[in-house]
Amino acid sequence: MAAATVVEADATTSDGGAAFSGAQDRGWDNSQLRTYSFTTKPIPRLSHTDPMAQKLIDNEEPVVLMDTNLVYPALKWDIPYLLENIGNGDFSVYISENHKFLYYDEKKMPNCKNFVPKSQRMEMKFSEFVDKMRRMEEMGGEERVYLQQTLNDTVGKKIVVDFLGFNWNWINRQQAQRGWGPLTSNLLLVGMEGNVTPAHYDEQQNFFAQIKGHKRCILFHPDQFECLYPYPVHHPCDRQSQIDFDNPNYEKFPNFKNVVGYEAVVGPGDVLYIPMYWWHHIESLLNGGETITVNFWYKGAPTPKRIEYPLRAHQKVAIMRNIEKMLGEALGNPQEQVGPLLKTMIKGRYDQDLS
Ligand SMILES: O=C(O)CCC(=O)C(=O)O
């Protein structure tokens, strides 16, 4: 990871072990973390006033900020408060047959006729979501729900007041200092304990503000592309890793053996900076109760007029995405034609020493 400056610490196995030793009153313990095969290093936890925190954000490296007060008025949010105040709008709720909520883009489904999503989106009132969640909690089966809805103007007055009380001064300054584009949305996530959002990357900058419960966030640098095997760009699961972290298929995805991650557990009041193009796997801790998060997604800064070489890993990812998109459009049938054409282009031509 050539560009990393200060995210350096001893690696540990991904059950949290050494990365989190020492914190006694953190409100969770290692038994609440799922176990994976790869190693991780801790993401630094810093005060937002620490110059190192600013340096990390400038370098587009993750950091947990402990004291931004970004969503201070929302720290009182819980299910009863939201039931009373969130309003009568419709909420997107995903229902999954297990703990994993693999994202898929419904608009890309016509590209892949045989694609069968493992979770379904349903629109419902907040109270219907809570009823469903309570029923599932009582049954204790595999099926789960996860509410993921962009905050909009259907929310009740008290939520609007809380929202206006967010620390916009601080976050607007972060945006301005780095030349980021506008805030595109705030996603509200209300999840059951143990829910997992599998590894994926977004093309936006993200301040991820934890409000209730704890989430474990495992991040991977954009240079881990070759270890994480994202679905093709035209596939509904574009930007998602094909690896099932619970049961990795090393024959199909051998480089996953070499993946290296960074991780942190965030709790109420913590804000995790997830840089654009960084992979993230996020799990609500086991036996930790419901979780509530609001994220702040920003468009990245415009491409600089003078490009510096060598290119950074995320710039190469953007180039690969553009090539895949162009080929898909040019060939007409991306699902069947892009892969074979790319293979024809490189097979036997780039493998050997060409001197
Ligand atoms: O919290 C989660 O489960 C997923 C959130 C996420 O992927 C994001 O904020 O980009």
Automatic annotation (TrEMBL):
**Which Enzyme Commission number(s) are listed?**
1.14.11.30, 1.14.11.n4
Q: Where is the JmjC domain?
A: 143-313
Q: Does the keyword Acetylation apply?
A: yes
Subcellular localization is given as:
Cytoplasm, Perinuclear region; Nucleus
Protein name according to UniProt: Hypoxia-inducible factor 1-alpha inhibitor
Q: Name one GO biological process term.
A: negative regulation of vasculature development
Keywords noted in UniProt? Acetylation, Cytoplasm, Dioxygenase, Iron, Metal-binding, Nucleus, Oxidoreductase, Transcription, Transcription regulation
Query: What does this protein need as cofactor?
Result: Fe(2+)
Give the UniProt entry's GO cellular component terms. nucleus; perinuclear region of cytoplasm
Report which gene this protein is encoded by.
HIF1AN
